[in-house]
Amino acid sequence: MLLAEDDRAIRHALERALTLEGYEVMAVADGVEALAQAHKTPPDVLVLDVMMPGIDGLQVCRVLRAEGDRTPILMLTALVETADRIAGLDAGADDYVVKPFDVEEVFARLRALLRRTTPATVGGPAEDAPTKEPQLPVRQVEAAGIRMDLQARRVWRGTRELELTRTEFELLELLVRNAGIVLDHSTIYDRIWGYDFGPGSKNLAVYVGYLRRKLDEPGAPQLIHTVRGVGYVLRED
């Protein structure tokens, strides 16, 4: 793991907590060091502070994504406005935590990011388990004019291809697979992040809003609908 945080106290505290949690941590103090270290020894996951001197976390994220680096990125930010969070997602970040944060929330988000990028272990069946016929993975799913190639991780609305971050892709896949079904907040949090951040969290609303911006077209029906007090549903009205 690569951790970039310019606040020395936060960097040391988080490095110590992550190490005790079992992570191998390379901690640096700014974006220049972060890019140099990422190029030298590519990490499994990056934790980037947004506001760092010189090259900030958003710039680090943009550079890595422009280079084709798809390593999961968790942003740390003291900026709480929706526009600031959207800027991080637009730069290519996969998730974010708002300061001051509970370290357990950082752990939960990291587990979710790594779980999505770690392939399942391939091996023989358990000794007492019955053997099953192998099943071919589903390659494509479609609903409400959206087509998703799950292996290539490409998405189209009609003939227009969309550029989605990892989290946006997985959120849209969940909605497409359950088109017409209202998914409550807890279910979505559990399926996408592996952790329910509670009714006070705006994390899901931010991602839904950003996904809508990429999906919606002038004159075309809105596809993701809010069911107030419950959750979200994908359908064409």
From TrEMBL:
Residues 138-236 form the OmpR/PhoB-type domain. It is found in: Cytoplasm. InterPro entries: CheY-like_superfamily, OmpR/PhoB-type_DNA-bd, Sig_transdc_resp-reg_C-effctor, Sig_transdc_resp-reg_receiver, WalR-like, WH-like_DNA-bd_sf. SMART domains: REC (SM00448), Trans_reg_C (SM00862). The keyword DNA-binding applies. This is Response regulator transcription factor. The modification 4-aspartylphosphate is found at D49. Keywords: DNA-binding, Phosphoprotein, Transcription, Transcription regulation, Two-component regulatory system.
